[in-house]
Amino acid sequence: MKLYPALTTLALACALLTAIPPTHAAEASSPVVGLTQSQAGYHRFMVGTVEVTALSDGTIGLDTQLLQTPDRHSLDDALKVAHVASPLDTSVNAYLVKLKGRLILVDAGTGTLFGPSLNKLPASLRAAGVDPTQITDVLVTHVHTDHTGGLMSGAQRVYPNATVHVDQREIDYWLATANEQAAPKEKQAFFRQARASLAPYVATGQVRAFDGAQQLFPGLRSVPAPGHTPGHTFYALEDQGVKLMFWGDVMHAAEVQLPDPSVTIVYDVDPEAARTQRLRAFADAAQAGYMVAPAHMAFPGVGRLRVEGTAYRWLPLPYVNDAAAAKN
Ligand SMILES: [Zn+2]
User: pLDDT for 20-38, tens place per residue?
Assistant: First the structure.
């Protein structure tokens, strides 16, 4: 996915702040921090007996010009119908799975590479009661910067005790200098950033590449889904007959791609394959009725799909607040 210039985010924050009534002026003295701390950034739910926590890395504006379709008119209509406009507020989500003594993170967020509205994953994780040093495994859906940039903080590994699992095809593609040189100039940064994020884990023997469909842990397996990138991978979590599919970048703009799944994005390495993958994934999820977690769906980004003609409707996971009640 793509960053919208950080300026937009800052401009939005400033616009919000000017609307704060004078009585709250004191609270607005350190505005961005104040707004950031007002968000929980995590949401727990169960998949059978397995606890999963959705973690927010933040949100960023997505320029709809990045979406690709021959029918610009119907794309604009879809935006209107959804009461949204460019840039679309877009979440960057990661997920924590507590599985039999392991703390498994699905995707690692952006790190510092996408500007100040993101890089909140470590704070969201801590707020959920887990320190990044406790993470045992990171499952990478694909090596784009907004999914792996957060593996590093400057020269430091953010998850020093974790094994990073990724399809071999992703490593082969993103770490090959020839592919970087062949890529259009505006996409070459992805290759440099991929190297910077992964190389330190490769150097310490912490990257475990797998080949396609594999049972990685009991109840958790990889599902190849190439298209958006060559080794793009879903991860299927199943327990007690309940299933959740972590979807990575099967879509970027729900408002547009649910009504018309044929719309692609400039960041698809193979747009045709990405479109085919999305149509197949949507149809399968709607038919089977399992939960899905697309990385850029509005946080917490977990729900189901229902088919409606040639379109799909998002059915968010019902919110359950199972925290213990306070004793007054
Ligand atoms: Zn991506």
Answer: 233 333 333 344 444 445 6
**Total number of domains in the chain:** 1
pLDDT in tens, 81-110: 999 999 999 999 999 999 999 999 999 999
User: Does residue 119 lie in a domain region?
Assistant: yes
What CA–CA distance (Å, rounded) separates 60 from 279?
Answer: 26
> Residue 191: which CATH number?
3.60.15.10
| Residue 322 domain-assigned (yes or no) | no
The pLDDT, as a whole number, for residue 38 is 67
Write the pLDDT tens digit of every residue in 226-280. Answer: 999 999 999 999 999 999 999 999 999 999 999 999 999 999 999 999 999 999 9
Residue 248 CA to ligand 1 center (angstroms) comes to 7
Position 324 pLDDT exceeds 60: yes
Q: Ligand 1: distance of its center to the CA of 2 in Å?
A: 8
- Cβ–Cβ under 8 Å, residues 96 and 128: yes
Burial 77-86 (b: 16+ CB within 10 A, else e): ebbeeeebee
Question: What distance in angstroms lies between residue 52's CA and the mean position of ligand 1's atoms?
Answer: 22
In this structure, is residue 283 part of a structural domain? Answer: yes
225 φ, ψ to 5°?
-145, 60
Strand 102-106 to 220-224 pairing: unpaired
CA 38 / ligand 1 centre spacing (Å): 28
CB contact set of 327 (below 8 Å; sequence gap of 6+): none
Residues with C-beta atoms within 5 A of ion ligand 1: 144, 249
Q: 122 C-alpha vs ligand 1 centroid, how far in Å?
A: 20
| DSSP state, residue 312 | E
Whether 77 is covered by a domain: the verdict is yes
Range of the domain at 91: 6-316
